[in-house]
Amino acid sequence: MSQKDKHIIFDLDGTLIDSSDSILDSFSSAFKDCDIDLKRPLTESVIGPPLKVTLSLLSGTNDHAKLELLAKKFKANYDSFGYLNTKVYPGVSKMLDSLMRYNIVMYIATNKRILPTLKIINYFGWDKYFVSIFSTDSIGKSNKSKEQVIQHIIKEHHILNEVIYIGDTEEDMLASNNAKIPFVFAKWGYGSLNADQCLQVSKPEEILDFIMGEN
Q1: Do 97 and 198 have their domain in common?
Q2: Distance separating alpha carbons of residues 37 and 39, to the nearest angstrom
Q3: Nearest-10 crossing angle of helices 20-34, 64-80
Q4: Residues 125, 126, 131, 137: is their CA dihedral positive or negative?
Q5: SS3 assignment, position 207
Q6: CA distance 30 to 48
Q7: What angle do CA 48, 51, 53 make, to 5 degrees?
Q8: 3-class DSSP state for residue 56?
Q9: How far is C-alpha 5 from the chain's CA centre?
Q10: Residue 2 lies in a domain
C-alpha cells in the first residue's frame, strides 16, 4: 500500500474492545429473567455471531417467541447500562490515534447491533477515528451478513484497493475472503487461527507497522 488512501475496516468485539464480561452478564440476566435454562456454558466462545444466532445456540431452540423474549431482555440490560462495562484492549486507543495521524481511513463492520455499537464508540470518544460504522442490522430492512457489511462499506466509499479487514475470528476471515479483500487476524481477541491461514498481528501496535511496511 502507498500511504495515500489506505483503508482499514475493523471488526469491533474481540478486535478493538473486550465486551465479554458485559455481554455474558447480560446473557445470564436475560435467561434468568425469562426462566429459560442455558444449554451451553457462558464463555467467550459464544461471543461474535449475531444476537439471535447466539441466543438460539445458548437456549437450544429456534422457537421464535422464546428468542424474541430473550433478545428483548438482553437488549434492555445491555443497551441501558451493560455496555458500560466494556473494556478497551491495551494499546488500541494509541493505535487508532497513530493510524489517524498517518491519514489511514478507518471504518467498522460488526455483528454487534448498531445501537450499542454507537453508544460504545461515543463512550470511548472514538467517533473521530471512523469515517463510517456499519452493523449487520444497520443496512436495509433485514439483517445482513458481515460479508455484506464489508461489501457495503467498500461500495459506499468507492474503495477500489489498498484496504484490509482486521478481525479476530474464523468468521471474520471468511467474510473478508468472500468480500475479496485481505484479512489480518488480531491474535489478542476471542478466536484462534493457525499462522498458515492468514496474516496475523500479536498486538495493536503492530498494525501501523504492518500497514506502513507495505509501502
Answers
A1: yes
A2: 6
A3: 130
A4: negative
A5: helix
A6: 18
A7: 85
A8: helix
A9: 23
A10: no
The predicted structure's pLDDT at residue 48: 76
**CATH code where residue 80 lies:** 1.10.150.240
pTM: 0.90
User: pLDDT tens-digit profile of 104-152?
Assistant: 999 999 999 999 999 999 999 999 999 999 999 999 888 899 999 999 9
User: In this structure, what are the phi and psi dihedrals at residue 197, rounded to the nearest 5 degrees?
Assistant: -85, -25
Judge if 120 and 146 occupy the same domain.
Answer: yes
Number of domains in the chain: 2
Q: Is 52 helix (H, G, I), strand (E, B) or coil?
A: helix
Grid look-up 500511504 returns: 3
179 within 8 A of 150, measured Cβ to Cβ: yes
Joined grid coordinates for residue 197:
491461514
Query: What does the alpha-carbon distance between residue 56 and residue 65 come to, in Å, rounded to a whole number?
Result: 11
Measured CA to CA, the distance from residue 86 to residue 122 in angstroms comes to 12
Residues 137 and 103 placed together within one structural domain of the fold: yes
Interatomic CA distance for residues 9 and 167, integer angstroms: 9
